[in-house]
Amino acid sequence: MERPTSSSSSDDDDDRQNLIEQNDRKLPTPRSTTTTFHIADDDIDDSNHRHHQQLRRRFTSLKLNDLFNKRSFVLFAIFLPLFVLILFFTTDIKALLFSTSVSASPFGSVSDKLRESELRALYLLNQQQLGLFNLWNQTLPNPNSTSNQSNSPQIPLLEDFKSAVLRQISINKDIQQVLLSPHRSGNSTESDFRDFGDFENPSLGDRCGILDQKFAQRRTIEWKPNASKYLFAICVSGQMSNHLICLEKHMFFAALLNRVLVIPSAKVDYQYSRVLDIEHINKCLGRKVVVTFEELAEAKKNHVHVDKFICYFSHPTPCYVDEEHLKKLKGFGVSLSKPEPAWVEDAKKPSKRTVQDVQSKFSTSDDVIAIGDVFFADLEQDWVMQPRGPLAHKCKTLIEPSRLIMLTAQRFIQTFLGKNFIALHFRRHGFLKFCNNKQRSCFYPIPQAADCITRVAERANAPVVYLSTDAAESETGLLQSLVVVNGKAVPLVKRPARNSAEKWDALLYRHGIEGDSQVEAMLDKTICAMSSVFIGASGSTFTEDILRLRKDWGSASLCDEYLCQGEDPNFIAENE
Fold first, then answer.
1. Does the N-terminal peptide bond of residue 316 adopt cis geometry, omega within 30 degrees of 0?
2. What is the annotated localization of this protein (predicted)?
């Protein structure tokens, strides 16, 4: 076979052929028969050997820079930097890098925040508009009503008007904060936005400051009893709160008649020694003005006889004492003279009486007298109801919780509430029928009650509400969900069940009075009386006793009020 003219092929052609084969990753093999070289049969072994050596030399001598000497790679090297420059100047690299992370942010974009704030501000503006319209309508007389119509709107009191205006100011502040919130950065502070207005304007004063009770202007009398003359207290109406009011009025009667007051026995009445410090009263007066029944029995050698039973009330029963209670007294060893009414007086419609009336009708030389239950007595009401009472003494109040209960209340407040808290007496059990029988019902639907509580919470700026209630969990749960200020729920805190890990009630436990219903009721009263602001239940003597303590202690607030004071329930059920 004739050898081809391989010598006429240049080195460039051979290199190109080898380069193409290398790039295609096709290495020549000894078995290949499809080649451009035609070798004679007799020279094949020698020719193959020389061919392989030539390929190795050329392949090992190939350099990287030989590649770039070629025209195609030179063009690529020219256009690559140019492409990078164009890409750099025409693309926002920072936006490209961070667009994914920003869009995935849980806080959303600034525009989303702005939209959300604007919608919230529009809602608050609408609420403010409704509030202002309501205030405007309350100040306008109804042209179609007459002065004799009971349902004609009344011009609001100054305090109610101030409260409504302050509520609108509070809403205005909320709107400002909502609109400013998207513009706040991590380094900005509240002071950076003071140019937009300061809600805590000094001209507004302290919205819920302490009420000045003017103690220096009290009208008082001295209680200087004859040590051998006694007034035997009898209290039967209602529960503990009613009995405490009855005892307080008995103290006034005893002072007017110059007698020592005898506290009823636990065998016929409540165990007062568990909730009151009887000796505290004597210390405040500086003399012996009250004694227990046991002390009287000891002085009378266990023969206690009521020498004269002069009834303050003649109707519906003499002395307003039922037969069952009289039997208890007699069974306990107390002998009673026949009840004699001092005048015609109905407990359901009591007449106003004066000091002179009492002294003229009840003064006697007998050692032990009784006048019956005087809870409903209307005697010098302004004098009796003044802060710290009508009697001259050196304490804040005469009838107050025992030392154990006072300390327990303080420990509970330190544990759960702190200095600034609202107390709410939310009476519900048996209150629906009682309130609906009154001329103006005092039983409010839960949503309406929640709105009234929220208004007080806004004014008081208190973070928590102490809840003293007999309401069911279904009612308190709904109430809790609806009491919201500035988008945040205001916690309603009740006293928890006994827990050995908690030490706030350890004193009651150590003295064996934990779980006593009267002790717990007095503890509730004490906590409420120590609050910054108190919301009471209209018509409840439990509330009235709390208000008495707050007045006497000087803790009454300008924001104290009855629940939904001045409002009628927005729905009232029919009577049976």
1. yes
2. Endoplasmic reticulum; Membrane
If DSSP codes are grouped into helix, strand and coil, which group holds residue 535?
Answer: strand
Element (H, E) at 387: none
Structure tokens at 141: 């007389």
Sequence-distant (6+) residues with CB within 8 A of 292 are: 262, 263, 265, 273, 278
List the pLDDT tens digit at each of the 576 positions of the chain.
444 444 444 444 444 444 334 444 444 444 444 444 344 444 445 555 555 555 455 545 545 455 445 555 556 666 666 666 565 555 555 444 444 444 444 445 667 777 777 777 777 777 777 777 677 666 555 444 443 443 333 444 565 676 667 667 767 777 777 777 776 655 444 444 444 444 444 444 457 889 889 898 999 999 999 999 999 999 999 999 999 999 999 999 999 999 999 999 999 999 999 999 999 999 999 999 999 999 999 999 889 999 999 999 999 999 999 999 999 999 888 999 999 999 999 999 999 999 999 999 999 999 999 999 999 999 999 999 999 999 999 999 999 999 999 999 999 999 999 999 999 999 998 899 999 998 889 999 999 999 999 999 999 999 999 999 999 999 999 999 999 998 899 999 999 988 888 899 999 999 999 889 999 999 999 999 999 999 999 999 999 999 999 999 999 999 999 999 989 999 999 988
| Cα gap 2→449, rounded to integer Å | 117
CA distance 572 to 90: 73
Distance between CA atoms of residues 444 and 435, nearest Å: 9
Among residues 538, 542, 503, 497, the alpha carbon closest in space to that of 521 is found at 542
Instruction: Please report which residue ranges of 61-209 form alpha helices under DSSP H.
Output: 64-68, 71-90, 93-103, 110-139, 158-180
Sign of CA dihedral 569, 571, 573, 575: positive
Query: Cβ distance 224 to 243 under 8 Å?
Result: no
Q: What are phi and psi of 317, to 5 degrees?
A: -130, 150
Per the document, the length of the chain is: 576
How many C-beta neighbours within 10 Å does residue 123 have? 13
Q: Which of 556, 455, 568, 576 is nearest to 210 (CA)?
A: 556
β-pairing verdict for 484-485 and 488-489: antiparallel
Classify each residue of 303-318 as buried b or exposed e, where b means 16 or more C-beta atoms within 10 Å of its C-beta.
ebebbbbbbbbbeebb
176 residue type, one letter: Q
Rounded Cα distance between 236 and 234, Å, is 7
Contact 465, 424 (CB under 8 A): yes
Tokens read off for 355 = 């000091």
DSSP secondary structure, 131-144, as one string: HHHHHHHHHSPPTT
**What burial class does residue 295 get, using C-beta atoms within 10 Å of its C-beta: 0-12 exposed, 13-18 middle, 19+ buried?**
middle
